[in-house]
Amino acid sequence: MANFAKPGGPRFSVDVYQNEYLPEGGREVNAIVTVTAKGGGTPAGPAAPAAVVLMVDCSGSMDYPPTKMRNARDATAAAVDTLRDGTHFGIVDGTHVAREVYPGGGRLAVADPTTRAQAKQALRRLGAGGGTAIGTWLRLADRLLAGADVSIRHGILLTDGRNEHESAAELKDALDACAGRFTCDARGVGTDWEVKEVTGIASALLGTADIVADPARLTEDFTRIMESTMGKEVADVALRVWTPVGTRIKFMKQVAPTVEELTDRRTEAGPRAGDYPTGSWGDESRDYHLCVEVPAAGLGQEMLAARVSLVAAQPDREVQNLGAQGLVRAVWTDDMAASTSLNSQVAHYTGQAELAQAIREGLDLRKAGDMDGATAKLGRAVQLAGVSGNADTAKLLAKVVDVVDAPTGTVRLKAKVAEADEMTLETRSTKTVRVKK
User: Fold this and answer.
1) Reported confidence tier of residue 77, pLDDT bands at 50, 70, 90
2) One-character DSSP codes across 97-164
């Protein structure tokens, strides 16, 4: 384990959990890399320079029922109240076009009692009407955030409907343009939005996604998001992985607090090294699963399979080495007990990743009318949730299937499932529980 304290910010540490022993001819090395930041910002602590843009869906569907628009205005006002003095912020009205609500003029305001009051006054004028083109909202947020001389750039996006007024390709182009420039939390309110769209936005922009089925709970959710944002201290942190000649990284994924595939997001960082983005950090801990393919070696030989370190690399700024690093090793042995033992961390998170996949596949099969396939996949999900102790996911599954026997994964699909329950399960399918170390 190594750690590093950023002056005035969190202290980073890296721990590696693995079984380094391989049988003769073995080539696959798996490790769980735990990254922890401690002593960083809290809502009451010293603030890192930050900018936040709130994107509020104001399409026509937000008027059905009329309380939905009122709840959105109230939630945004609560988020504005949570801003720390000195935070740059703006509000965007999102329909089939994007419009600045506050402060306007292509700029951001700086939070203080006066600007917060002005922003809440401007929110009262928000009404519903028009379509939905989320890519335009994101591009406007990007332009506004780019003008702020801050280290933390963040968006909060609320939608209640499908992205019907631009193509999927247009939304993807917008996400590609914004990726690495700011992070974004996305929320779907009600049940008329598309889960894969909202989770895709959050995934591309390294934020969180969730459902707020009851609009009355938006204020609570927005306040929590803003408190988390205000606690971020270091932006654009990346896992830098170096591997020796002859090795190949099979995959890199975040496995806690959610499952997030990072393999294809690698950017080259010098000879045999690459960076995997993780977004902004406050006082928190996350787990990553690294799988490396190494050249086969003889019994008794050992090698360094990978070196994992942390860097902060904002666009157009010098890369900062955060100092913390961990080593992944490979040792070849004829001790069968040692070489066949699966590390508890690796086993746990392999199961959690399979759980997320089983839920997604099961719900897709259910929607496609393949009830036998859906039953098998969701039954496997119930079994995995029980084995891993993921009680929250088990409760969500129980709203979609009747559990006959959890240990064997024997279930029956419920004849009637509330749409909110199915969407909640799908949206939260990637949430994991930490393994007890």
Assistant:
1) very high
2) SEEEEESBTTB-EE-SHHHHHHHHHHHTT----S---HHHHHHHHHHHHHTS--SEEEEEEEESS--T
Task: Return the pLDDT at 315.
Answer: 56
% of residues, the chain, pLDDT over 70: 95
Q: Is the distance from CB of 428 to CB of 394 less than 8 angstroms?
A: no
**Integer Cα distance of 303 and 332 in angstroms:** 9
Give me Rg for the CA atoms of the chain: 23
Residues with Cβ within 8 Å of 140's Cβ and at least 6 positions away in sequence, in order, are 53, 92, 98, 100
Could you give the 3-state DSSP secondary structure of residue 265?
helix
Contact yes or no for 154/184 (Cβ under 8 A): yes
CA angle 270, 181, 268 (to 5 degrees): 15
Determine the Cα–Cα distance for residues 39 and 96; give it in Å rounded to an integer: 43
Residue 203 φ then ψ, to 5° = -65, -45
Q: 6 falls in which pLDDT band (50, 70, 90)?
A: very low
For residue range 338-374, list pLDDT tens digits in order. 998 989 999 999 999 999 999 999 999 999 999 999 9
More confident residue, 317 or 245: 245
* Residue corresponding to tokens 């073995």: 26
Distant-in-sequence, close-in-space partners of 293: CB < 8 Å, separation ≥ 6 = 27, 28, 29, 247, 248, 249, 250
Kindly report the backbone phi and psi dihedral angles of residue 98, in degrees, each rounded to the nearest multiple of 5, phi listed first: -115, 135
Q: Is 364 left (phi over 0), alpha (psi -120 to 50) or beta?
A: alpha
What token pair was written down for 215?
Answer: 């609009």
Question: Per residue in 364-402, pLDDT tens?
Answer: 999 999 999 999 999 999 999 999 999 999 999 999 999
Pair 347, 409: CB distance under 8 Å: no
SS (HEC) of 55-83? EEECCHHHHCCCHHHHHHHHHHHHHHHHC
Structure tokens of 13?
A: 């540490």
The answer for 301, left when phi > 0, alpha when psi is -120 to 50, beta otherwise, is beta
- Identify the burial level of 324 via C-beta atoms within 10 angstroms of its C-beta, where 0-12 means exposed, 13-18 middle and 19 or more buried: buried
